[in-house]
Amino acid sequence: MVAGQDQAAAAPAIDVADLAIRYGGQLALAGVTLQVPRNEIFGIIGPANSGKTSFLRAVNRMDLLTPGMTVEGSVSVEGKEVRSWRNAYALRRRIGVVFPLPVGLPMTIYENVALSARLRGTRNRSDLDVIVERCLRRAALWDEVKDRLDSLGSLLSGGQQQRLTIARALSQDPSILLLDEFSIAVDPVTTMRIEEVLAELRAEMTIVMVTNLVQQARRLASQTAFFLTGELVEVGETETLFEGGARDERTTAYLEGKFG
Amino acid sequence: MNAAADRRDLSWWVDKVAQILVLAGGLSAIVFIVGIFLFIGREGAGFIFEGFSLREFLLSPRWTPTSNHNPTFGALALIAGTASVTGLAMVVAVPFSLGAAIYIGEFATGRGRETLKVLVELLAAIPSVVWGFVGLSIMNPLIVRVFDAPVGLNVLNSGIILGLMAAPIMTTIAEDALKAVPDTYREAAEAMGATRWQVILKVVLPAGRNGLVAATLLGVGRGFGETMAVLMASGHAVNLPTSPFDAVRALTATIAAELGETAEGSEHWQALFTLGIFLFLVTFTINFLADVFVRGGLPGRRRRGRRPVASANP
Ligand SMILES: Nc1ncnc2c1ncn2[C@@H]1O[C@H](COP(=O)(O)OP(=O)(O)O)[C@@H](O)[C@H]1O
Ligand SMILES: [Mg+2]
Description:
Chain A is of the alpha/beta class. Chain A contains 11 helices and 10 strands.
């Protein structure tokens, strides 16, 4: 038992072996083997349709909710194979997700951030107040919204909504945060603010950051994986890849912006 | 850029004619509404301006229009009849239609879903006289047997029948409201670990709230306006109901049953048209409210409208 716990504590945040993903039989991603160590930012780059989003969906078992999606191989989160979870909802509660386009749920700003706690049964208003303020502060949104917590979350600007989404993900108190091209609909200033937030969060959680901006991976990620048309081309130390140390010439070409 | 190119060709004329036809179609709707209102208004005018007492009309339960020495025109019992039947109908129809809409919209997939939708639409097309017949010949003896009631034509019978009648159209509208809730909301909530039921309860239903209210209001409007089924299943007795087993008489059924046997232009005739005006105003208000809700709630409130989520695409 104790040995088992030690093992789990030492296991990488995410451990993927021979992962293959299909949609209705059509292969979307194959042969992915990689480890995401704890408490670091792990970057995933690659052009559209290379399987980055599918990879994230396999980690938090959204395949269960996607008609036709099947996953083969193994995906372990903190030492436990995700498909061995009998309660997939409990797994998802430990994993925060931020989508490409901000999704302010059609409720107040306060309720957006309180939702996760409410779903877990927290009713006490002052407990909720604490959670809401803490998460909004950590997402660098508190100062902008503290006077209008009761207005609709979906009325915020795109950049604010994306920070609201991050606050909502943080309210789950996750040990893993999955970000899918979070800056795609966000202005550059907000992008930089969110990047600062992520750099701070790294101390407390593991972050998998799929990004359409290779420079963003360079700024934040310790390791970076390059996906291309359903294949993991390579994974390595970010600095090595960017300093010309990539083993695969396709990686070098992509990093140099020769295709996208 | 030459004069020969500037010519009113066939497609120009087709466009013009089509515009005029569509405009005429739209105007005719207004003309009909105004025309109907003017017509029933004119027929009821004599009564409203002479023998009419608003107090008696709204507060007296005595509807004795054919009495020789002292005819009275109190519509309270008729209003109460319609309201009680419609109220019970909503108690039946709201859970049914909401449940069906949630199942069709959130759980059913593929062919099963399409089949269900077609079935619901078929249900909506059953003529009301058929429902009345069901009330008369199936519900009536059933109520007598189950509840040991003396007669089975009453509020309970007609309320259930009316509820079943209104449920299909309410289901269709409620399902549209649920379908209008973006999938990104569901996905975001699911990714947080919300169960399917939590997603529906905390995200989908609140987001579709206005459409669901509209569905209910249209059901109420349907209930107020329904005639034949209520006439057949309610017992058609002027009565202030105190229990679901009381027979009642509805506004619509009164008009339908009495108008044919009334001398044109008589006080009774005019009183019936006054009932019609009342019904028209009530259903008009209900439909107007439903429309307001479909468009996103009452104007001027803070939670006005539902703006789409930021759509700044890359
Ligand atoms: N729900 C789905 N159904 C069918 N095919 C899908 C679905 N989602 C993604 N795919 C396919 O899988 C491949 C990888 O897509 P995705 O993981 O979204 O790539 P990325 O995030 O890198 O753009 C693409 O070819 C895409 O068309
Ligand atoms: Mg993607």
